[in-house]
Amino acid sequence: MACGPGYPRCTEVATDPQHCGACDKACEQSYCDQGRCAAVEVVANDLYAYKITAYDQASLYLIGSGSSKETWRVLFDGGKTSSASHKRTFAPEASDGTHLYGCREGVPAPKDAPPGEHHGTCELVRSTIARGRIVRLATVERVLSGSFATDGTTLYWAVLTKDATSDLAEVQAMPVEGGDIRTLASDDGLRAIASAGGNVYWASSGPRGKDAGGGVYRLGKDESQPRQLAAGPASAVAVSGDEVFFARSNRIIRIPAAGGDEFLVVKDQLDGKRMSSSFRGIAVTDKDVYFATTGKDVNFATVRRIARPPRL
Predict the structure, then answer these.
(1) pTM for this structure?
(2) Euclidean distance between CA atoms 27 and 225, whole angstroms
């Protein structure tokens, strides 16, 4: 393809990183694959795997799976990460841009808890991002780690049931200032929650031991029953505006928040080559989509950034 007058040569916009998909559309420190720039590595670590647990328009919060479970804060501009200056007495699991919400550490899980990541008995707390006073909101048992979300008005999370043969979880909600806890829905295989505008979304891998099932679900603020937006096992979910992003297998997919056609955002772009991986969280800003993964070596993890596709 010729890029028009003034260009000394023809170029292939499907693969040229300086003209990826269109003339003068350069990729940032990555290659061009079928007219789209590949994901850029933001941070990597070979000591323990990262999980994206909270994010807002300014920062991305990561928690390592090592024994220290240090909290890392990554600036969205790709700035340096720091564990020591952002270590807290609780693990941030949701952010509304002003406050962080999470479980205070140190409370053991119940002996009959089902397998998987959980907080056991959670002392649910919040504090300002500027390290203000920690405020206790409630005590909740069997909270599923990584299941928190907030839209600035309501805090959502999931709790596991006492049935050790399943991953059945209940979606619960409470005002961000504290108050009565409501149970909104239940799901067998719930893995992550997102929220926006009073609506709550979740990703489900489906019932344990079954090949079929799972999907992405939405419960509207004025609805009594959840609605499936996408079918098939899903492991992570994020919502931004009128768009929902979720992970299915080795892909990140975008759909309208009300449901509709799927658009492929990420596929096999980890480390610039195909590799086994699992997604450990998605974050979406006005400009970019961030995702955390583990690879063939589960102790090695990366957080990557890819340009957000044009809006629907």
Answers:
(1) 0.83
(2) 43
